[in-house]
Specification:
Layout lengths: L1 H52 L2 H14 L4 E4 L5 E3 L6 H9 L2 E5 L2 E11 L2 E10 H4 L3 H45 L14 H34 L1 H12 L4 H26 L7 E2 H18 L4 E5 L5 E2 L3 H18 L6 E8 L2 E8 L22 H11 L4 E4 L2 E7 L3
Parallel strand pairs: 7-9
Antiparallel strand pairs: 1-2, 1-5, 3-4, 4-5, 6-8, 9-10, 10-12, 11-12
Helix pairs in contact: 1-5, 5-6, 6-8, 7-8, 9-10, 10-11
The structure holds adenosine-5'-triphosphate and magnesium ion.
Length: 416
């Protein structure tokens, strides 16, 4: 924008300067010409006055004296054909002046000035002076250079002022862009400085700040709503706990109560997590995956499923909240249990490579339906959210979710 403004101002100023300076330069040249011709004419006229009055001898002396001092040689053509001063033959212009009177005529190399002295006894005498081209242009080049220098100085001044203006507009816009970047990067505390830049930019800054505040409020409301929703599940869970306590088989009751307790802890974690102001999420993927795999391994044993585990040792830091990664692992392992026959084996592999951590869950079942993975679409009469939860966890790090055969891979980038 700075360059464009500078170009615009340069173009506009160049037009204005050309419109003023070119006529001024031509005027200066004409003025210089007129001055030189006028000086020559005055000199010729003063000699013309002498031609009428002085005798020929005195006149010759005066003309020669004048030619010694004068800038341009003067020639006097007397009516009797005598030529005084610079000796040249009578030019066509001089002969014409003898008949028609005084005038001046332009030649390629200068201007010829002719003054006719009428009323002499023998006819009309003509005083001729010639102003060469260099005298006509005397001082013009310097004046033109001066004009050009003034033009360039004005142009530079205009460019400097335009650049100051452009900086005053561009700097606050850059600040706005940086604030927007910060906001989109999750830093919801970023605000644009008020009162910086021209009024329009200040308006945008105020609107951006309001938008940032609104996003913050909406997120807070969203988290509170999630917390409320989780809290509502406590009532059916209490009923479940009472039912579990009422089971006749004490072993069964203990088992059920343990599961209800785990559910209660998970709910509490969800509520606390939803209500917490978020810092940048992070966890150790190795620890989280190991913990969830241990949980599912107990159920696998109950169902006679062979579990093949290949978990890279930690710590494997990833930019995902522990609860989110745990939810993704649970979604994938939960799917194995929900969508394959009892007894079907499965494998979990956690591998680390430079810049990424990959979690792969596969099973010995029939594999995925090609349409699987669309949010809200379930092939098993459920809610159809599991794979999407895992996908969003992957994508929050810049990675992705891949499904091939009966294998799902969650790619978590560690250098997004
Ligand atoms: N291990 C698997 N083997 C075969 N098909 C699977 C497997 N896991 C998921 N699917 C298929 O992919 C679909 C989508 O899975 P997703 O986890 O997203 O939803 P869901 O399990 O149906 O519902 P939710 O997870 O919300 O309870 C499933 O309905 C199922 O048809
Ligand atoms: Mg599922």
């Amino acid at each position: 924008m700075r360059r464009r403004l500078a170009l615009l101002v340069a173009a506009a100023m160049a037009l204005v300067l050309v419109a003023f300076l070119v006529p001024l330069a031509l005027l200066l040249r004409t003025a210089a010409e007129d001055r030189a011709v006028a000086a020559a004419r005055i000199q010729a006229q003063s000699l013309g006055a002498l031609v009428a009055t002085a005798d020929p001898g005195a006149l010759r002396l005066t003309v020669e004296q004048a030619n010694v001092d004068a800038a341009h040689p003067v020639t006097v053509f007397l009516p009797d054909g005598t030529v005084l001063g610079a000796q040249i033959a009578a030019t066509p212009a001089a002969r014409l002046a003898a008949q028609r009177g005084s005038f001046s005529v332009a030649h390629a190399d200068g201007r010829e000035v002719l003054v006719a002295v009428q009323g002499l006894p023998g006819g009309t005498a003509v005083v001729r002076s010639f102003v060469p081209e260099r005298d006509l242009r005397r001082g013009v080049t310097r004046a033109w250079l001066l004009l050009a220098a003034v033009g360039v100085a004005l142009l530079l001044l205009g460019l400097a002022v335009a650049d100051r203006l452009a900086v005053a507009v561009v700097r606050p816009i850059r600040t706005l862009a940086a604030v927007s970047e910060g906001l989109s990067g999750g830093d919801l505390d970023r605000r644009a400085p008020a009162g910086d830049g021209p009024p329009e930019v200040r308006l945008v800054a105020a609107a951006l700040n309001r938008l940032a505040g609104r996003i913050r409020d909406l997120l807070r409301q969203e988290r509170e709503a999630a917390a409320d929703l989780s809290h509502r599940m406590r009532t059916p869970m209490t009923a479940l706990r009472l039912d579990a306590e009422g089971l006749a088989d004490p072993g069964e009751a203990a088992r059920m109560l343990e599961h209800v307790g785990a559910l209660d802890r998970a709910l509490t974690a969800v509520i606390e997590d939803a209500r917490r102001e978020r810092d940048a999420p992070a966890c150790d993927a190795a620890a989280v995956v190991a913990e969830r795999v241990a949980f599912w391994s107990v159920l696998a044993e109950d169902q006679g499923r062979a579990a093949r585990l290949d978990l890279a040792p930690g710590p494997l830091p990833v930019a995902v909240a522990a609860a989110d990664l745990a939810a993704a692992v649970d979604a994938l392992l939960g799917n194995v249990f929900a969508h394959t026959e009892e007894g079907t084996g499965f494998a979990v592999a956690l591998t680390a490579a430079p810049g990424r951590v990959e979690l792969a869950v596969s099973d010995d079942g029939p594999g995925f339906d090609p349409a699987a993975g669309e949010r809200g679409v379930s092939g098993g009469g459920s809610t159809g959210l599991g794979l999407d939860i895992a996908r969003r966890t992957a994508e929050s790090t810049g990675g992705r979710l891949r499904i091939a055969g009966s294998r799902v891979t969650v790619e978590l980038l560690t250098d997004p």
